[in-house]
Amino acid sequence: MLPGRGRNGRAARLERILGTRTAWTPVGDGEFFCPGCGGDRNYQRLTGRRRLAVLGVPVVSRGATGPVVECAACRRHFGTDVLDHPTTTRFAAMLRDAVHTVALAVLAAGGAGSRTALETAVAAVRAAGFDDCTEEQLAALVEALEADTGRITGGPCGAGLAIELHEALDPLAPHLACLGRESILLTGARIALADGPYTPAERDVLATVGAALTICADDVTRLLVTARTPS
Hints:
The chain is of the alpha+beta class. Helix content is about 50%, strand content about 20%. A hairpin with a 5-residue loop joins β3 and β4. α5 (about 160-170) packs parallel to α7, α6 (about 180-195) crosses α8 (about 215-230) and α7 (about 200-210) crosses α8. The protein is elongated, with a radius of gyration of 27 Å.
């Protein structure tokens, strides 16, 4: 059989004669994490209208389609739910803020007066991206946090502090793998252990951190034990 005379050839000829064309209209733009490129890219949000085309000429409307997100680099189209994923830059900022908030919360549970705990917290916060963090800054922020939440150093994790933790951790948790969520909890646990065994207030704060990171209570208990084991 000659090329183009089989079933595929007939389908190709029919598609050239009769097909569907989509006219896209930009309705917004911004920056997103492109799953096709694997990095941050600019995008356009598009809505479209589908039309039946004869010989390439649109003749009959087939209704609306979209919206879709088009990557400015690879030109691939994605569903709008792709915008729920933070950009690399935004994700790094969320992770940095999460570690910073956890460190402050643990220090507020009783470690702010300990030089060792402050040093451990500063190292963790610097590793997360706040390169210029100092012990004096953290101590001052703990005082401000206590004044803002009405919490007394060494007291249980009150509603104000719990809200601070959930605001920092809830948006981040869905984008972290299990090991990533556990790593944040372990960071807080090591700060708590820097000046001795966990106090009841520190356990309370770490339990709140675990809940905000969607780590079940049994795994929180396991991880707090793991943190006490020398590596």
